Amino acid sequence: MNLMAEILIQVVIAFLAGSLLLGLHRKIMARVQKRPGPPIVQHLIHSLKFFFKETAIPKTVSKVFYIGIVFILALIWVVGVIAGPVAHDSLLILFGVYAVYKIVEHNSGSSSGSPYGKLSCVRAVLSAATELPLFAAIVFVYLVTGSMNIGEIIAYQSAHGPLVFTVPLAALMFFMLIITKSPYSPFAITKDKVLISGFETEHFGFLRGFMHFSEAIAWYVLLWVFLTIFFGPLNAVGYLIGMIAITFITAFINATTPLLSPNHSVMTQITIGAICFFGTVLMIFTGVVA
Amino acid sequence: MDFVTLGGNLLGVIPLGDIVLYLTPFNLFLFAVLLGFTLLIALSKPETQVEATMHYLYNTEVKVGPKELKQRRFLSIICGIASAGAMITGDLFNFTLFMALVGILNIGIVSAVKQTSVLNSAFNYGLIAMMCSLPLFGGAAIILAATGTLSLAVLSQMPASPMVVFGAVLMLIGILGESGVAPFFASKAEMFRTAGSPYIVIIHLSSLFIIVRAVEILLLVLW
Fold first, then answer.
1. In this predicted complex, what is the ipTM?
2. Burial of B81 by CB count in 10 Å (0-12 exposed, 13-18 middle, 19+ buried)?
3. Which of A136, A201, A216, B60 could covalently link to A18 via disulfide, CB atoms 3.0 to 4.6 Å apart?
4. Cβ neighbours of B24 in A, within 8 Å
5. pTM (2 decimals)?
6. Tell me: the pLDDT tens digits for A88-98?
7. d(CA A88, CA A82)
8. Residue A112 gets which letter from DSSP?
């Protein structure tokens, strides 16, 4: 298939699947909390709706960044789709994509001039604690498989079985990142309701539409990477079941867990990350991991 | 371990005497993003930060003055270029130099701000960065002494001796402190409270990207 066509198809799949999964996430959370909740397609409809809403730009903003940052956000997750589902390229590129996502989170908050966005920006710096477990998880995958290339990691798993059984604690570290990035997560300190919508507060109209578009793709890419590097090789049905299962699990966790304070959130993430890190190191050096 | 296994197919090499720069899709992505952000920084004006005024019903507007703007914009652009250089360098010592330069520039970007809490944070971060420059350069020096080279292309083909591992661990400590990420981010977070969004974004961006690049470099040296 033509490469450009494949990229386009994969981006559309990522957007639609990501939106429906986020809608499902919201529905499950509502049912756990004994509310009817919105329809599953609500997130998708919301995303499309914003593209046709009037866009207002506050007079306090740093205009180039305020507008540019949402396009960068959309672009980097499209790069994530290209590096992941399309090209099966290096995991390090996806790590880079995630790093840019943190920057976008930071800058879209601060560029508005709003105090809510600003606080969200400062919290984005504090929540950088999630990057280290992600980095450690990727390194452990590399140590076991001898490659950063997603295609080669899939090939390794088809010969030796899924990596989740070999390095379960590394999988747990990655799963912590997924929980952190899921909506209404106990670690979502940048979108705390005391900050209204955090870094998204001052973005309206089609700018917010781009943010919703990116959120949907980000959720799809994160789940895809997790399933691919720890449960691979999977077919389309396997991915579908896996993504729905993870969405169910994270929705249950988020529905029953209160939002932690910034300090507690960071300390919890670092503690779980450290336990998993040293646990995996121990497993490697004691020969539990071949 | 070679470049291809870590960052994808080698797209090209830029030999500048004994300094060899190289590009894989991974390096190119980081390099392009940094240059893109640097361009945006050069073009953009800072926001007006709105803050609530205690005991009164009006808001306070915090702006970046013209003189402060020029200084911070200049340092931010240099920081962006230095970070972009760190993304494609094929020399271990150059990476540590870029890293140290980024640390100094990060402090410089907020040094003209007239907010005590921000300056305190910059001072604390400066202390950590200074202390960590010793293991950073020391680590690179130990690797040079143990292998006789600082070229990543050569180091990636060599088996890691215990001294190389020791040097890499020292470098990792140095990088963590210089970039101010966990567990040192607490000293740096307060720096982001000041106005001037386009300039403080490069502080965060350079720190994160250098950590991402450091992962590649340490894997090249150790495996």
1. 0.82
2. middle
3. A216
4. 90
5. 0.89
6. 988 888 888 88
7. 8
8. T
